[in-house]
Amino acid sequence: MAVQDYIRKRFFPHLWCQGCGHGIVLNSLIRAIEELGIRKNDLVMVSGIGCSSRITGYVDVHTLHTLHGRALAFATGVKMSRPELRVIVPMGDGDALAIGGNHFIHSARRNIDMTALVMNNQIYGMTGGQFSPLSGPGVKATTAPFGNIDHGFDVVKLATAAGASFVARTTTYHVHQMISILKEAISHKGFSVVEIMSQCPTYFGRKNKLGGAVDMLDYFKSHTTAKGSDAHKKDPLMIERGIFVKEDRPEYCSDYDMLVKELQLKGDA
Amino acid sequence: MKHTPKPDMVLKGIFMAKKTLKEIRINRAWCKGCRICVHFCPGQVLECDAQDKAVVQRPQDCTCCMECELRCPDLAIEVIVEHPKEAAHG
Ligand code: SF4
Ligand code: SF4
Ligand code: SF4
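Predict the joint structure of the above. Result:
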């Protein structure tokens, strides 16, 4: 199927600003789905609230646009009742790790089979540029005009510690890597987390005088490096990209299914 | 003798003809003029016009790398290529 067959063309041009990274995520995501040959009818995308979460409006698969921070909770309901469906949960940084922080760590702990995307632009775009738990110190935001003093989460470390069995990071500049990581994450059986560093030129870029979308992509290119590379050993401030965790671990829906079968056997005996 | 391609290299396509550009389609209604395609095109093939829409300026320099299509946040570019091998077989 062609890439264009996976989108709801009637809603284009989309509402994201000029150069918004979320459009690049959408672009890579539908290519990954297309390359994996997933049927539209076998795929559910569940999102919460925010600029990032509008992505479910544009994909022509089963979609749920739910409550702020609660996408993973709704997705858990979908997966538990229809475990044969593939579930992808695209979230923004605030949606995933502030409002939805608890759902995030507990979904990781259970290792439920779904793909959580953290489209990390370090800011709340839709509500007007407030700092998020991924902004980090020194960042300027509408709610931190003199510079943020909050430290940010490291999504990769957080997801790993919470028990996700697949954890990766990439950026909207590295589209080939994004497509290949998304393919692996979607194919992985268990809770997979992909952090995608994404640009919000309108708020994050403007507030922090980072230029436009092109400059922000150039920044991702020059300030990130492949996991374990020499560049990272020389300069530990370089952000690592790649797959950090990929392990086979008991998956929640399979365990639940096994438990039910065991109890049924006991009941029959 | 030295220049005879090894059979496995032929199979891997190293000596096959390169794909060629048929057309770069830009959807002007969807393009928002962010210039991402213009800036990251290795061949300086694209430009933005007075209406801030991407246009194909030097198609002859296109290497069909697909970078513009993959990085466009608005899904506004399609690079249509011709694979000579496929064309030969209809
Ligand atoms: S406000 Fe930021 S995140 Fe939201 S659409 Fe605009 S650029 Fe994208
Ligand atoms: S990347 Fe897309 S939206 Fe941006 S200028 Fe090029 S065609 Fe237009
Ligand atoms: S396919 Fe590559 S070379 Fe051709 S216009 Fe796009 S970015 Fe430039």
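Chain A touches chain B at residues 3-4, 7, 12-14, 16-24, 26-28, 31, 172-173, 175-176, 179, 212-214, 217 (CB under 8 Å).
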